[in-house]
Design brief:
The chain has 393 residues and is of the alpha/beta class. Helix content is 41%, strand content 14%. A seven-stranded mixed beta sheet has the order 2-10-9-8-7-3-4, sandwiched between helices. Strands 11-12-15-14 form a four-stranded antiparallel beta sheet. The protein is globular. The termini are far apart.
Length: 393
């Protein structure tokens, strides 16, 4: 029996950031907005994950828990099956989320006042963990490309490496918000530069499983082992299976010295205890939700195809950026001739939707919006009708 991703599930009054806290987090003062900002699903998580959680809850005891062999086997087998990536269990360090882990690594691998390079438009939490840790955010803007969406400006990146001598570069792959999956050739050139200037790469690969048809994912760990001493990859089941509030992520650290330092940092912050339900959910998802994900990817691809066709046919003042992964869509609204505050106003007051404003992704995002297509088709139909109202003004 196929999963019904068209089912509308009421998420109001569940503590949902996306649905219940738009005013607090987005300062959008409208009660009836369609939320398309937070990157989580409006689908139920896989049935076998729900079954595993029910069994664990019915057991009734929630004492201190640890990752067992099944957890590591589920994780490593998943990456071998889905991405032909061999992960050694001893590489795995777990923490309650990717962003907290990245923040600890920024503290561990740089000093106050050091520069950390990101590629804009960049995920807003990258800016937060860099600046609040009193490091200097240096932006290497991506360059638009009509065929693939965006490409790296490696020439400028080398200039930044030479000028600022940053110890760290934060990579997002697949890239949020643009949906670009970086190729082996691009990553090889990037790591060659990082080797030349002694830069460590923190690669946020949380979107790795969410690929559009015909696309493939290349991890920094797919590349030559000579670079393993300067790469750390962050993964999680949360984006793939809709488990964002069941907080557990895995940092894959091939270098034993780096891993030992990271474990010491986790212990220093008391982050050595794991949530029993989180481990249960992630293990069940990796072990038994592959068919569910394949069906979901088909649904998400159809959502994107439909949404793009509607924009091309009825909303010529919007331009969709090509992508290879994620369930996000990055849209250029600059033809409207509005500043970012005006753009936000027409999206909320006329279209009736709450997007992620591109300006929240740094200077390179100005004039853009990011929408979440991980929802029933009926929500997208509502969004298109709202966007058409802007064109009618």
């Amino acid at each position: 029996m196929k999963n019904n991703f068209d089912q509308v599930i009421n998420r109001h009054a569940t503590g949902s950031v996306k649905w219940d806290f738009i005013d607090r987090y987005q300062n959008m003062q409208t009660d009836n907005l369609l939320p398309m900002w937070v990157s989580d699903y409006d689908f139920a998580c896989p049935p076998n994950v729900l079954e595993a959680l029910h069994r664990r809850v019915e057991h009734g005891v929630f004492g201190y828990s640890e990752r067992d062999e099944n957890y590591y086997t589920a994780l490593t087998n998943w990456f071998e099956r889905r991405h032909q990536l061999l992960i050694h269990p001893e590489w795995v360090c777990s923490i309650e989320g990717v962003v907290p882990g990245l923040s600890l690594l920024v503290q561990m691998l740089s000093q106050v006042g050091d520069s950390v390079v990101v590629q804009g438009p960049y995920y807003g939490s990258f800016a937060k963990i860099i600046t609040l840790n009193q490091r200097n955010l240096v932006e290497n803007p991506l360059q638009e490309d009509p065929d693939v969406g965006y490409v790296m400006d490696l020439e400028q990146l080398e200039e930044l490496f030479s000028k600022y001598r940053p110890p760290l570069f934060i990579l997002c792959n697949p890239h949020n918000p643009t949906g670009r999956c970086w190729s082996k050739d691009e990553l090889t050139k990037l790591l060659t530069l990082c080797e030349k200037y002694d830069v460590t790469v923190l690669s946020d690969e949380i979107w790795a499983d969410l690929l559009l048809p015909g696309s493939t994912f290349t991890s920094v760990l797919h590349l030559e082992s000579r670079w393993h001493s300067r790469v750390i990859a962050a993964t999680s089941a949360s984006k793939t299976f809709g488990l964002s509030s069941l907080r557990i992520s895995n940092f894959l650290i091939p270098d034993a010295g780096l891993k030992a330092r990271f474990i010491e940092r986790l212990n220093a912050h008391g982050l050595d205890v794991f949530n029993a339900l989180s481990m249960e959910a992630a293990t069940a998802a990796y072990n038994g939700s592959e068919k569910w994900l394949d069906e979901l990817l088909d649904y998400l691809a159809a959502n994107r195809d439909w949404f793009v066709s509607q924009i091309q046919n009825y909303l010529p003042w919007l331009r969709v950026i090509p992508a290879q992964g994620t369930y996000l869509i990055w849209i250029d609204c600059r033809a409207l001739g509005l500043n970012d505050n005006e753009l936000k106003s027409v999206m909320t007051e006329i279209a009736g939707i709450a997007p992620s404003m591109g300006s929240g992704f740094g200077p390179a995002g100005s004039g853009f919006i990011r929408l979440n297509l991980g929802c029933p088709r009926s929500y997208l139909e509502q969004a298109i009708k709202g966007l058409q109202r802007i064109g009618a003004q």
